[in-house]
Every structure is written in structure tokens, then in C-alpha cells.
């Protein structure tokens, strides 16, 4: 009984501290369902496999308990957070820095495509929490530059992507550098069947959280704050928008990292409200002002659809996804509706002027 009361009290103190600082997202008044479900369990040291929609506060759900477990007087890497993209690594590390700024916790982000030398120099300074892509962290560990033997917590954000053929070999190699009694926390909006095998091999009696509910179109008559347009090839869409007289930003894989960082910064800070991007942008990027997503090219899988539409309506706010459907897309539409258990409705014939740019 005392143990339950202790963790309930610890959770309450953590949440109060979290909201008092106001360092995660301005305007939040209470923990989200995934945070309420996840944080108390994570604080007990239990492994977690959590499924929740994008924009529901998953980042804070694992950052808060991870930071709680760090002893800032012990200058070793104690928590590792794996993410699939550079942008998500930078964003997650920023959340951790904001949450831990009064706890003297040192956070480092490392990803491929950046200077390995700079990372090695940084690792000679205190690092308590390491956020990065699997390949880069594995490279540093193999070179002996990154000691993970004291890392008691491993977090996998966007776990479905991390367990794709592109990343899973690196993830599994990286686990061998961590202590055998580490705690593992896995979060994602989707969990394909490949996750079950990984869970059975690496997680110890995990606590399962599933907060997925039906995707519905709440409203089509709302003003546009920030707009995302997803497409297979951004070039054609960008040309169409320019011809329509719209100012836009492009975010695509072939851009240099510095350029991508600049585009991400400008869009987040409102320098431009219209961003044309490929699916590179779907992985965990959290910009709360985005309330409309347009699928210029309709996705072929329910997983891609879920990650795209999850860019809008973050943390309980109203969001709208508009799908441009061709005759050839109809079978993908029917299949995605069936797999997600969702009813993707037709837009009404008459839409209020507030829907469009002024």
C-alpha cells in the first residue's frame, strides 16, 4: 500500500513541477491520457509498450519519468532515447532540456549527417541523457566514445519506424551495449506485427497501453493556422502553389541539413504558414499551430496516413485532414478505412470562407 501511495505522490509532484515550469507546451492545463497512463508505470521501472495517436503528449510521457531517474551528480549517460530522424532528435532533446533545466541535467543530441568530431568533443563533457538516431549512437559506442553501461533506461520513440529493416539491426546491436537489467519504453502510433517478436525477445513483462480511438472528421469549417501538404514528389505541388500565388516552404530529403533546420525553424515560428513536404516530416514532428493537413498524394498505407494526419490537431486541439482522391486511390481509401476502423467522410459541397486564406 505504501508503495502505491509513494508512486502516486511522486507522480503528482512531477506533474505539478512539469506544469508549473510551463516548459513543454504553453497553454496545457493537465496531463494528457497517455501521460496519466504511462508516467506512474514508468516510474516503477516496468517496461512499457504504448500506442497512442500523434499529438497526444507521448514525448512528455517518457521524458518525465526518464528525467526522474537521472542522478545529476553522477556524470555518466543514464538514459538513451532513440528516434528515427534528425529533426525529431533535436525536438526531443529540446523538450528534455526544458524539462530538466532546473534539475542540472545535461542533454545531448546526436544524429547522422552532423560532425562526428563535435560529438566526440561534447562527450568529454558531462552527459546524462543522450538523444539520437540508432546508427550514430551505435557508431559512437563501437568507437568507445560513448559508454552506455550505466544507461538504465532505453526509450524508443516512433518504435514502428525504429523496427523497420532500415533501423532494427542497429537498434539490436545497440542494446548489447546497455546493461541487461535496463528498462525499455516503446512508444508509437502504430505497431506492425514485427513489434511482437522484438517485444518477446527484449521486453520483460511489459505494461501494454493502447489509447487509439477512431479517427473522425470533427469539422471542416475552421480557419487555417498552419497548413501541411504531403506529396510523393514536392516539386510538382510546389509549382502548383506558386502558380496560385501562395507563399510556401519546402521540406524534402535531398535538402542539406542546415537548410532543413532553417525551414523547420521558420515554419514553427510562423514565418510561413504553408509547408509542402514528403513523408520525411511525418515522424514525431510537433508543431501545435498546424491544424490542417492536405494529402495531395493519397498515402498507400494506413501507417503513413496515420502519421500524416497526426501532424494536425495536436494535444486535443481541433485538426482537419483533407484527402485529394483520384479514381486510382479508391482502393487504398477503402483499405485504410477498414484497417483503421475510421470513416473518412466526404467534404461538404459548401464550405465557409473561414476555411480559406484571407
TrEMBL record:
Compartments where found: Cytoplasm
Cleaved signal peptide residues: 1-24
Gene Ontology CC entries for this record: cytoplasm
Pfam families per record: DEAD, Helicase_C
Signal listed as a keyword: yes
Annotated organism of origin: Sesamum radiatum
GO molecular function, one term: hydrolase activity
Function, as annotated: ATP-dependent RNA helicase involved in mRNA turnover, and more specifically in mRNA decapping.
Top-level taxon in the UniProt lineage: Eukaryota
Protein name: DEAD-box ATP-dependent RNA helicase 6
Residues of the Helicase C-terminal domain: 170-355
Gene3D superfamilies, sorted: P-loop containing nucleotide triphosphate hydrolases (3.40.50.300)
InterPro entries: DEAD/DEAH_box_helicase_dom (IPR011545), Helicase_ATP-bd (IPR014001), Helicase_C-like (IPR001650), P-loop_NTPase (IPR027417), RNA-helicase_DEAD-box_CS (IPR000629)
Record flagged with keyword 4Fe-4S: no
PANTHER family from the UniProt entry: DEAD-BOX ATP-DEPENDENT RNA HELICASE 50
Primary subcellular site in the record, as a coarse category: cytoplasm
Family designation: Belongs to the DEAD box helicase family. DDX6/DHH1 subfamily.
Domain Helicase ATP-binding: start-end pairs: 39-209
CDD domains: DEADc_DDX6 (cd17940), SF2_C_DEAD (cd18787)
Keywords: ATP-binding, Helicase, Hydrolase, Nucleotide-binding, Signal
Amino acid at each position: 500500500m505504501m508503495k502505491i501511495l509513494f508512486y502516486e505522490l511522486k507522480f503528482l509532484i512531477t506533474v505539478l513541477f512539469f506544469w508549473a515550469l510551463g516548459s513543454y507546451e504553453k497553454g496545457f492545463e493537465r496531463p494528457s491520457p497517455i501521460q496519466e497512463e504511462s508516467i506512474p508505470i514508468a516510474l516503477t521501472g516496468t517496461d512499457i509498450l504504448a500506442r497512442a495517436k500523434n499529438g497526444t503528449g507521448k514525448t512528455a510521457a517518457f521524458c518525465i519519468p526518464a528525467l526522474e531517474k537521472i542522478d545529476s551528480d553522477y556524470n555518466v549517460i543514464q538514459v538513451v532515447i532513440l528516434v528515427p530522424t534528425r529533426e525529431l532528435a533535436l525536438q526531443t532533446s529540446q523538450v528534455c532540456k526544458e524539462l530538466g533545466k532546473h534539475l542540472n541535467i545535461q542533454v545531448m543530441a546526436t544524429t547522422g549527417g552532423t560532425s562526428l568530431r563535435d560529438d566526440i568533443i561534447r562527450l568529454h563533457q558531462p552527459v546524462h541523457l543522450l538523444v539520437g538516431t540508432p546508427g550514430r549512437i551505435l557508431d559512437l559506442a563501437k568507437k568507445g566514445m560513448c559508454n552506455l553501461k550505466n544507461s538504465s533506461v532505453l526509450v524508443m520513440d516512433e518504435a514502428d519506424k525504429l523496427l523497420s529493416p532500415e533501423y532494427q539491426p542497429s537498434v539490436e546491436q545497440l542494446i548489447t551495449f546497455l546493461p541487461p537489467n535496463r528498462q525499455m519504453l516503446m512508444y508509437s502510433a502504430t505497431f506492425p506485427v514485427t513489434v511482437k517478436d522484438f517485444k518477446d525477445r527484449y521486453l520483460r513483462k511489459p505494461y501494454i497501453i493502447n489509447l487509439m480511438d477512431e479517427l473522425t472528421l470533427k469539422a471542416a469549417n475552421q480557419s487555417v493556422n498552419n497548413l501541411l501538404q504531403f506529396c510523393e514528389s514536392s516539386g510538382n505541388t510546389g509549382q502548383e502553389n506558386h502558380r496560385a500565388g501562395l507563399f510556401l516552404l519546402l521540406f524534402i530529403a535531398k535538402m542539406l541539413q542546415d537548410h532543413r533546420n532553417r525551414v523547420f525553424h521558420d515554419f514553427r515560428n510562423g514565418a510561413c504558414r504553408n509547408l509542402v513536404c514528403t513523408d520525411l516530416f511525418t515522424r514525431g514532428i510537433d508543431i501545435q499551430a498546424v491544424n490542417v493537413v492536405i494529402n495531395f498524394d493519397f498515402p498507400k498505407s494506413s501507417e503513413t496516413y496515420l502519421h500524416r494526419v497526426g501532424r494536425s490537431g495536436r494535444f486535443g486541439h481541433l485538426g482537419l485532414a483533407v484527402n485529394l482522391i483520384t479514381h486510382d486511390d479508391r482502393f487504398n481509401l477503402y483499405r485504410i478505412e477498414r484497417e483503421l476502423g475510421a470513416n473518412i467522410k466526404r467534404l461538404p459541397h459548401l464550405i465557409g470562407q473561414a476555411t480559406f486564406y484571407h
